[in-house]
Amino acid sequence: MRQYLRPYRFRLGALWTMVLLNIAAGLSVPPLVGAAIDGPITDGDLDALWVFIGAIAAVGALDALLNLVRRYFQTATAMAIEADIRNVIYEHLQRLHTGFHDQWQTGQLLSRITVDLGMIRRFFAGGLVFAISSTGMITIIMAQLFWIEWRLAVIVAVAAVPLFLIGRGFFKNFLPAARAEQDQSGEVSSAAEESANGIRAIKALGRGPLMAERFEKEADRLRVLGVRKSLIAAKSWSAFGAIASAMLGATLVIGAIMVANGQLTVGQLTAFIMLQLNLLWPIEAAGWVMAHGNEAMTAADRVYEVLDSEPAIKDRPGAKAVDRSALRGKLAFEGVRFTYDDDEREILRGVDLDVRPGETLAIAGRTGSGKTTLVSLPSRLNDPTAGRVTLDGTDIRDLELAGLRRVVTTAFEEATLFSMSVRENLALGRPDADEADVEEAVRVAQAEFVYDLPYGLDTRIGEQGLSLSGGQRQRLALARAVVVRPAVLVLDDPLSALDVHTEELVERALERVLQDTTALVVVHRPSTVALADRVALLHEGRITAVGTHSELMRTSPEYVDVLSAESEEVAA
Amino acid sequence: MTVQQEKVPTQQDRHVAWRGRSEQADAERTSAELDDAESIRRLRARSRRLLGSMMRPHKRSIVFLVLILVGQNVATMATPILVMYGIDHGIPAISDHDDYSVMVAVGAAFAACAILEYVCVRLYIAQSARVGNAMLYALRKRVFWKFQRLSVSFHERFTSGRVTARQSSDMESIREMTENGVDDLVLAGMNVVTITVVMLVIDPLLAAVSLLTFPLMLGLAKWFSRVSAVAYRKARETVAVLIVYFVESMGGVRAVQAYRREERDRDIFGRLNHENRFAQAKGHQQNAIMAGGMRGIGHLATVVVLAFGGWQVMIGNTEVGVLAAFLLYMKRFFDPLNELVQFYNVLQSATAALEKLSGVMDEEIEVAEPAEPKRIERPSGEIRFDDVRFHYREDQVVLPGLDLLIPGGQTVALVGATGAGKTTIAKLVSRFYDPKEGAISLDGVDLRDLGEADLRAGVIMITQENFLFNGTIAENIELGRPGATRERIVEAAKVVGAHEFIESLPDGYDTHVRKRGGRLSAGQRQLVVFARAFLADPRVLILDEATSSLDIPSERLVQRALRTILADRTAIIIAHRLSTVEIADRVLVLESGRIIEDGPPEVLVDSGGDYAELHRQWEASLV
What we know:
The complex is a heterodimer. Chain A is of the alpha/beta class. Helix content of chain A is 65%, strand content 10%. Chain A is built from 20 helices and ten strands. In chain A, helix 5 (106-148) runs antiparallel to helix 10 and helix 9 (208-260) packs antiparallel against helix 10. Chain B has helices at residues 11-16, 23-30, 37-55, 59-97, 101-149, 152-158, 160-179, 182-202, 204-210, 214-251, 253-258, 262-314, 320-362, 422-429, 452-458, 473-478, 486-496, 499-503, 522-536, 552-565, 578-581, 601-604, 610-621, and strands at 383-393, 396-406, 411-416, 437-442, 445-446, 459-462, 540-544, 570-574, 586-591, 594-599. Chain B has a six-stranded mixed beta sheet, with helices on both faces. The longest helix of chain B is centred in the middle third of the chain and has 53 residues, at 262-314. At the A-B interface, helix 2, helix 3, helix 4, helix 5 and helix 7 of A face helix 4, helix 5, helix 6, helix 7 and helix 10 of B.
């Protein structure tokens, strides 16, 4: 946490100085009032009273001004710190590998950058300042109390013991309760986010009531946890206030006896009690401050859960830059094995495969044979568990990640378009692409429909813009990959949503693009195989056959089963 | 092509518009910043109504809570009185008469007050947590349900990020309010009243003088609530925009990484974060001004009372003890107010959130449930389009007037180019939208007259997006028929050919699919969705490109299953693979929303029309 505070250390230092000055100013008022009562008012000295009043007015004005300035900048600083941490989390999340994102619901991440950061910010802006100011205040008041009458002050000090004990118990119970509530709040956000994203699927099935029922279950759990947390708070806070009041009563009785015995003046006792009244609020509020502190602690824990997750895929020390112009584009898989984190079974069990520079290699295989996993490796969306993937003979893990992804481009079957213009979506992988590049890519992908959109290439699409059909999205995703003109192009079943006629046109146009590009293409259809120079059959995590389409049709019964046009026709 | 509803852009719009959607339209659809008095009043009334409806079921509890607070108030109020009494009477009694009984009584009263305070505070926190959480729970439920009922076009306009924002960060604002400070507000209110009364009783003249500062306080509070309402309303929107962006970029993180969009994303997110930071800070800074001002007024009051009171004492109009007590009360008067100022922040933020939520609650449901739904006992599955006209945008008519009768049990395939209206027809039958003109009926009953439950039991659509929910494979299939046994789930998976790959997963049917089914391939997700639909067993099944990602062996299985499954039910199939189309009884070729060919596939193949041409191309593609 400290690193986020460092840029603001001078500001924070100034703030906390102001807090202390503020307390000093605030606390000088009661003694002045006491002195005014004991002095000029009791003596009937009007002129002296004016002096006191002038002093109180000046100190009061200073107090108010300090308060205003402090809060003003305290807010700005706390907000700045919150925004900084939010940026850091966002950047970190972007670096985290896809495996992490698969496991984390967006709602949980969201609640970290909103609710949890809010708690931390509030603690810095409110709780912490309050804790500092009350500690300062209690110290000063206690000092004054001791100065006025030490025996009475000892009685006040003794009250600290039960307060401490109660506070300790509170910490122990409240912390886990707060954590449980915050986690559940993330679950509720996740449920809300998922239902918003899946609204079409839900409506298509008419499962709104079911989803509502599930959401209610989560929300109800949140309710129960919220109540439980507050019950813990209720137990401690109430004791805090009561102890403070009891203490005041004890002081009054004993003080009165002392006054009666002539050991104390009425003015002194009044001043003492007025000061002590100032203690009531910090003590009563200590419970609240502790709760805020606890919540901020658990919130920080939750934030660090994300920040401490190491990106599994990052630059190795000494990673080499990638020189696009010197790249030939020879891609090789050498004994590649892959296992998902939480799964003992190997998806890839020793894949050996060479793709020659400029060659187009198709990957065929049954559903679940590991095709999608395999094609996620060249751009390092996943790293192999064993073995290596090389580009021109260099292990791709020894290359700079950004550079690698500039030369290896992947188009996914499910096209993700972002809420920005068509043009920006297309130039995503190559922001410096010019108009001609974009137009060429649109043509290759048969995506001319974009010119008919209300603002042409400037039309905003994605969730916050116009929605497009599956086929349209897929063509844009393909065009996006083409714009990059990478050395290695990876296409995961890029034409599945296209009709036969369009597919044929796209293929014809793609052929020219693929001529001097190394390409790895996942295929499900014989028609798409036409793009490829060779086909590799992936079966149960291994490459069991490589050859041209007609070779494999002759030699591999497994291949025939997966890709035979005849069998499709027979079924049809 | 599915294009959402939008105004035709004028030349001027083009200039102000940001890539197809103007900021103005953004603001409009969420009524982010209304500043004319009339709309603010409407906004206020709307959110007050919502708040009222939230509190109504808890009327008794709230009364009880107020009573507890009164008790607490009595306990805390008694303190200065006891102090005064102790000084004025207890001390003289001891020093003059050696009589300790008064002091003992004061001490006992103090002990009683401490106990009363303990009980009240404890009861209050526990009880208010119960009520507050129950209110929040009910509100969450209502908002969620409302979003569920709102139409697809609403969701497309509003975006999922905003839906999430309303249910997370806005709710959080309200939660914060229920958790902190409502008691302070009530206590401060009581405080102001009781202390004013007590002061008037002790010394009316002094009291009148000290109340001179009252108008100043009111003015300050009024200023704050006016300016900060605007600031907080704005802040609710900036945080929503931030969330929209966050949700979107985290959802598409694979593409972000693959295309190295990290840096640009960071810039945009950083900018939104920056905007949000200042929007949030603004209200808080106005609050700081108010807080400082309040403290200043408090000090001013002390000075005035001291000067006037001191003079009164000097001329013998009042006693020192009275003045001392008065000054103590003044402190008790202002201290809670100073604390309350901070809570005012939370309150304003929650009010802004309530305004947003009340906006959602007031949103008109475009595809509404009928007031008196008609029932169909056993639908035969006959679908009729009666001169149906539809467009998403005024300038682009999708269906110019469609007449179509699909008898019960018939399987119809829709064929045509992108933008011909195939998906639109599917969505109209599933009632994602209502036709602009004309009517669509199931067994002669207008879809608009059917209850939601009846409609969905009759018509189910498999959409293009293959959406999987967080949970296991079995749970995802079970969505088709909640409560289905494991046997039936497995059976459905077997029928569509998903059983084999599911069994090969580490935990079989109990394998968690991870976020959005991230651990499955597109083809696998499609099979799971298919199994889900088969399990649902509707009279009318709509398949919108539901087999596009399947490999040939899977598709073969699915087709075999389709033949049996569709034998006795109505089906509308959209597929670009003619292998799927060929199982249909009837093919409709669409062009610009009109049916240009209609007949059994085997007839159309030989007719020499568009379908025959498509079929020829398809055969050629099989190599």
